[in-house]
Specification:
single chain, about 500 residues, alpha/beta, Udp-n-acetylmuramoylalanyl-d-glutamate--2,6- Diaminopimelate Ligase, Chain: A, domain 1, UDP-N-acetylmuramoyl-L-alanine:D-glutamate ligase, Protein-Tyrosine Phosphatase, Chain A, 3 domains, eight-stranded mixed sheet, seven-stranded mixed sheet, 16 helices, binds ligand UAG, binds adenosine-5'-triphosphate, binds 2,6-diaminopimelic acid, binds magnesium ion
Length: about 500
């Protein structure tokens, strides 16, 4: 594509006019390490390094044109200076890939918790409706029978446009995207116009990045204010105050779910250990449904997904069928065993998520509740004591361990969790003390996650529940800069075997 086709849409301040016969470019890159000859390199300021530093490397690798924010008059290739290169990256990528978002029925989901779950439910509903569906989210990108594990919840704008274009090429008609607050703050979804934008909830997370809850909240509202197609629906969960506030603030097509006045609500709901059943209530009448996911929070997720599906014209029959069939890996995922234990792995890594999951299990299972959890390193420190308090107060026995410590010392993270616990440490793990017996109540600290899971499962008696929270579908543990194989589900099953 000729670079002048791309620059037409840019508001550039520049710099040198592009010379005659400006080169065709064959691809767009924002990371110099991926640059190949004849491509466009967009230099972006970063949190750790400044992408402008890599312009010489990009040119050495054959970049034909460079876009950036800083003045440069000494380059050997055309340079376009813009005020915001992240924005420019999103704009030129959409042009380069021929605006794939406009060729799809596109649904975006934001909120602190529930995005992945709502995406899986919608995928199942669209499949039941016979639509060729694509998904981009925390667990994977999947379409046309292919699935690739994700590195990010919402990729960089260039990668979003590339993936959407490949979806269009593969015949996908309906695409579902999780839209993280980072993505909104960093303009990754500029140039994506959504047919439906879904809001699940807002509770504490990511304060390391956003700084305050107000800034975090504002980053989320951008999806509804700026990124809907003309008459695109804002599908809003009214079960929380932020949902109500958002619905009040928006004009146009606002499709609320779950409140008395909503076009979609539920009634006669039964939440049981094996799932939820009840009825959807719409202006067309009542529609019985059943789902294998449990917990009130999953009822909210089901309503959000059903609302989004309705807002883009999906028939109720497909919605009911899709809700019956969906499964989300690592979200209250139940592990079968022959020891009479209730074993669950869940992705709760925020205070609200942990509270929802523990309160769900507390009411549904009669025996002791043992919860194994930690908190991620290099992430919001202020959620750690909150999670400690919640984890310990809902459980009979809380086993405090490591999540993904990343660059932090695991013991330091645990030191941030423990002050939130109102109670005495019942056991600091030392292998030689095991002969004293493993505690049945209180909290214990076992920094090694494998040992923590092993001892929690070994100490459980028939009828007890063990919840391993925080890492859900993850198949790795990040310790320092190493990404080691680790899957909570496999560890739980191994622990069941070794406890025989
Ligand atoms: C806070 C954040 O989102 N950071 C993202 C941001 O990083 P950054 O601005 O710090 O980039 P940087 O590393 O300083 O580099 C600056 C620029 O130089 C480029 N570079 C760098 C090195 C080099 O040799 N050559 C080169 O060209 C980089 O590609 C980049 O364009 O831009 C990078 C390039 O796109 C992203 O990889 C990076 O995501 C990091 C890995 C990350 O961990 N992000 C997480 C927090 C995130 O976005 N999470 C949300 C989900 C959160 C949730 O809701 O749970 C997500 O959507 O995944
Ligand atoms: N609607 C909800 N309200 C509160 N908690 C929820 C809700 N849905 C799920 N959860 C909890 O949050 C965890 C994460 O759910 P899910 O993966 O669907 O959210 P997410 O928004 O995609 O998270 P992430 O931003 O980390 O990708 C679940 O394992 C569960 O513990
Ligand atoms: N997308 C979230 C995932 C957190 C998962 C948890 N296991 C952790 O590592 O903190 C984040 O990067 O903050
Ligand atoms: Mg997610």
């Amino acid at each position: 594509m000729n670079i002048s086709c791309l620059t037409k849409a840019l508001d550039y301040v520049i710099a040198a006019p592009l010379p005659e016969g400006t080169p065709e470019i064959t691809a767009i890159h924002y990371d110099s390490r991926n640059v190949s000859p004849g491509t466009l390199f967009v230099a972006m300021p970063g949190e750790t390094v400044d992408g402008h530093r890599f312009i010489p490397e990009a040119i050495k690798r054959g970049a034909a044109v460079v876009i950036g924010e800083l003045p440069h008059d000494d380059l050997t290739v055309p340079y376009i200076q813009v005020t915001d290169s992240r924005r420019a990256l999103a704009i030129v990528s959409a042009i380069f890939y021929d605006h794939p978002a406009d060729k799809l029925t596109l649904v975006g989901i934001t909120g602190t918790n529930g995005k992945t779950t709502v995406a899986y439910i919608l995928e199942s509903i669209f499949a039941a409706a016979g639509h060729a569906t694509g998904v981009m989210g925390t667990v994977s990108t999947r379409f046309a029978g292919q699935e690739v594990a994700s590195a990010m919840t919402t990729p960089e704008s260039r990668d979003i446009q590339d993936t959407l274009a490949r979806m269009v090429e593969a015949g996908v008609t309906h695409a579902v995207m999780e839209v993280s607050s980072h993505a909104l703050a960093l303009d990754r979804v500029r140039s994506c116009a959504f047919d439906a934008a879904v809001f699940t909830n807002l509770t504490q997370d990511h304060l390391d990045y956003h700084g305050t809850m107000e800034i975090y909240w504002k980053s989320k509202t951008v999806l509804f204010e700026r990124h809907r197609k003309e008459n695109g629906a804002a599908v809003i969960n009214m079960a929380n105050e932020h949902g109500k506030k958002l619905a009040e603030s928006l004009s146009g097509n606002v499709f609320t779910v779950g409140s008395g006045k909503s076009p979609l609500t539920s009634r006669n709901i039964q939440v049981e250990i094996d799932g939820i059943h009840g009825e959807f209530i719409t202006p067309e009448g009542a529609f019985p449904f059943a789902s294998k996911a449990t917990g009130r929070h999953n009822l909210e997720n089901i309503l959000c997904a059903a609302g989004a599906a309705l807002s883009v014209g999906t028939p109720m029959e497909a919605i009911v069928q899709g809700v019956k069939d969906f499964h989300v890996p690592g979200r209250l995922e139940r592990l079968e065993n022959d020891r009479g234990l209730h074993l669950f792995v869940d992705y709760a890594h925020t205070p609200d998520a942990l509270e929802n999951v523990l309160s769900t299990l507390r009411t549904l299972v009669p025996g002791r509740l043992i919860c194994v959890f930690g908190c991620g390193g290099d992430r919001d420190r202020t959620k750690r004591p909150l999670m400690g308090g919640i984890g310990a107060s809902y459980s009979d026995l809380a086993v405090i361990t490591s999540d993904n410590p990343r660059s932090e010392a695991p013991e330091k993270i645990i030191d941030d969790i423990v002050p939130g616990i109102d109670g005495e440490l019942s056991f600091r793990y030392e292998p030689e003390r095991l002969s004293e017996g493993f505690p049945q109540k209180g909290y214990v600290v076992i920094p090694d996650r494998r040992e923590a899971i092993g001892l929690a499962v070994a100490s459980a008696l028939p009828g007890d529940t063990v919840l391993v929270a925080g890492k859900g579908h993850e198949t790795y543990q990040i310790i320092g800069s190493q990404r080691l194989d680790f899957d909570d589900r496999k560890e739980v099953l191994k622990a069941v075997e070794s406890a025989r």
